[in-house]
Amino acid sequence: MKASLRYAATGSLTLGAIILVLWWFLDPEGRRGLLLAAAIALPVQVLAFALLVRFRTRFSRFLVVWLGGTLVRMVLVVAVAVVALRTHMAGAVAMLLALAGFLFLLLLLEPLHFRLELAENLEAR
Fold this sequence. Notes:
With 125 residues, the protein is mainly α. It is built from 4 helices and no strands.
């Protein structure tokens, strides 16, 4: 299975499990914020991971993509916070905490999938 698809599947399952656990502790607004955070975080992370995989063999481009992905994540959290606070969105606190947590957790999954892909490439040779 391609590394990006495996990462997306693992990320989806991980976020789904976290949402199931947290669901019972949140009010309806918090639940909506939790789902929105997952819907924002997962595509951004999968895209960033796919770009890293694509440029993994070209070190200078890899660093540019890695730095760009980091900046995109930071700007994303700030932009979502500004929009949520300006619109007085219900569940904003839960959404922002979940968004930051989801982005961090999905970031921690990246090295595992890089190793799996590297092992598969070595076996194929």
